[in-house]
């Protein structure tokens, strides 16, 4: 036994160190994925007996207006959340200077990311609130007629995305600030000697060096957009009449909320969301793998 | 180190002492979802129960009201208490069907509850058995601001046509005739319930919530046609506000009428209204000659199937059902006792509710308790969409009808 351990120590040690993490990952991520896949084939209220229904949940999904609304909103979230990248970069460059008290400004800009999403949601709900909200009053003052953003099916999703962008921009900003700290000063110096400045400098010298930061920023933004749930739940509860739902919220509503408990249908929505996420995740993994092997 | 040791010994001793204190009394675990006022009322009730049964100690675990609705599914299966709050009607059906609630027909039989709680018996009965005990219910109706009526110079209406006529005058005075906050959806289900009960009657309403008639039925459309009459006079942006925000509008006199349950009286009065400014009326008649039915949601206590102390739990149910206990409890709750031998206080809203419910032809629970959960959710979303976009009615009803086929099969 000891001799086996001695002979294979080098080969076994990494696996031993990986074991706790791998076990957690298996129990809390991998196994639930397959459980969700299997539950999505059943009709089950979470209490009684589950009956096998095959692909019926998916067939129903294809004919469900609420599902398409959620899907459309998810795509909107994905597209508009990307605005956090240029906005975060702009603020990072703006703050990347040495003036007195810059650290205070940096931390103030970072503040929205520190506070809880629930608080962000509540603040924006009051901001938009009809009759007394600041934004409502502002619109009323400009146009003469206030708009209750969160009660209008056409604006509600945009209203929530703006609330979500606020902390997301702060997050992206901090990623870029650290990135900017690592920029090689000699390259900037050399570029300056060659006469580069302004946009040229940004595009050809700064941005290429920020590529790792950009990659991380894209990853967290895409994932942040796809798992948007708390803001929808806090600000509108998916309303008015379901027009601000996203897939993760619809899944929660169907499977776990007061009027739901259709575990199978909820699981089917989860599987669809998982498939969408998988497209991005495999893309990211492929890119990371390529970067590693290139070196 | 020695300090640590003595500390540990002291802790162990304290634990043992508290353990022995519990050992003397039989523990009754009670999971509930009370807001502050009902919580105080129930703490008094529990004290009375413990005084009568000195060998029983009731441990009340109070949950957040909304969180309770999902928590109950976890604790019933995982760590079952001896008593749990829930609601009558279709709301308890999933738990009964899954065998999570205990049959308590014997409590009803042994204590003559079938006669004393006659008004609530039907809503507690599934498959001919009773699955819990009701302790309170409350009326729904229209609460109105008397000052707003004075400001618009109109009289409290006695008919639906009169109500709708008033609305135009309220609008001229810059007052919302009807207010509501539909962010949480359920407040508008009360409006639908009443419009449907008054337009088509109790039997049709029950058939509709039980899935026996189509949502595309002409009678349903007639209900929505009545609703359309008051939509232009309903608070704008109701979809973005909670019911408490709409209550504030009524308190401030910016709105005149509010279809609500009696629990809202506490909120109105906190806002500064008094018995002189707050009024209550039964929802006016729409179709002449129709027997009058009312919404009266009933709150109930059940014994989970996994209860450990069933004997004392049944004792508690019998205690809660008793006439004198319900009189005292409901006086503190500001609601109506379900026991017919109980008496009500002289609060004008309680008296009006008692009058309204005891003379009613039949009682409905509430849309989201009469209809299965899923249909309730779809329905209420449909009502909200109708209130914002009335021209989409046909599409909404088609969608509800499609869901009906699936949900009730």
Task: Briefly say what this structure is.
The complex is a heterodimer of chains A (about 300) and B (about 400). Chain A is an all-alpha fold. Chain A has helices spanning about 1-40, 55-60, 65-80, 85-95, 100-115, 115-130, 135-145, 155-180, 185-195, 200-210, 210-225, 230-235, 245-255, 265-295; strands spanning about 40-45, 50.
Q: What would you say this structure looks like, in words?
A:
The complex is a heterodimer of chains A (295) and B (409). With 295 residues, chain A is mainly α. Chain A has two domains: 67 residues, no CATH class; 171 residues, Orthogonal Bundle (MetI-like fold), CATH 1.10.3720. Helix content of chain A is 75%, strand content 1%. Chain A has 14 helices and two strands. A two-stranded antiparallel sheet of chain A has the order 1-2. In chain A, α4 packs across α8 and α11 runs antiparallel to α14. The longest helix of chain A has 38 residues. The model of chain A has no long low-confidence stretch (mean pLDDT 90). Chain B is an alpha/beta fold and 409 residues long. Chain B has two domains: 184 residues, Periplasmic binding protein-like II (D-Maltodextrin-Binding Protein, domain 2), CATH 3.40.190; 192 residues, 3-Layer(aba) Sandwich (D-Maltodextrin-Binding Protein, domain 2). A five-stranded mixed sheet of chain B has the order 2-1-3-12-6, with helices on both faces. In chain B, strands 8-9-7-10 form a four-stranded mixed sheet. In chain B, strands 4-5 form a two-stranded antiparallel sheet. In chain B, β1, α2 and β2 form a beta-alpha-beta unit. Chain B starts with a helix and ends with a helix. Classes of the chains: A mainly alpha (295), B alpha/beta (409).
